[in-house]
Amino acid sequence: MNIHTDAPTLIDRVALSNSLYELAESFALEATLWTVGSPMRAELERSARLLAELARHVLTGRADHAKAEAFLDGGQTRLAEAQSIRRFRDTLNTPPRRTKGANRD
C-alpha cells in the first residue's frame, strides 16, 4: 500500500493478481483429480474461473483490493479442504498393503 494513501500501488495489484492466478491454476489442477461429473469437480472448476476473473479485475484496478485479499485467503483454505477430502477419500478406497512374509493369523 502507498504510504500516503490507502490506495494499492501497481506493485500491490500485480502481486495480488499473480497470487490469485496461481490459486486459480491450483484449483484447476485439483479439479482434474476428481471424477468427471462430480459436484466437487464442478465447484473446483467454477472457483478456478472466478479466481482468474478476479485476478484480471485486480490487475486492471476494477476490484476492491481488500476483498480480493479476502478471496485469496478463503480460496487457499477451500483448496486445502478439497485436497484433504480427496486424500481421505482415496485412503478409504485404497486397500491396505500386504508385505511378503508378514505374520498372518
How would you sum up this structure, described in words?
- The protein is mainly α and 105 residues long.
- The chain has one domain.
- Helices cover 70% and strands 0% of the residues.
- It contains three helices and no strands.
- It has helices at 10-31, 39-60, 65-93.
- Helix 1 (10-31) runs parallel beside helix 3 (65-93) and helix 2 runs antiparallel to helix 3.
- The longest helix is centred in the last third of the chain and has 29 residues, at 65-93.
- The radius of gyration is 20 Å and the shape is elongated.
- The mean pLDDT is 91.
Descriptive key words:
elongated, 105 residues, mainly alpha
Summarize the structure.
With 105 residues, the chain is mostly helical. The protein has helices spanning 10-31, 39-60, 65-93.
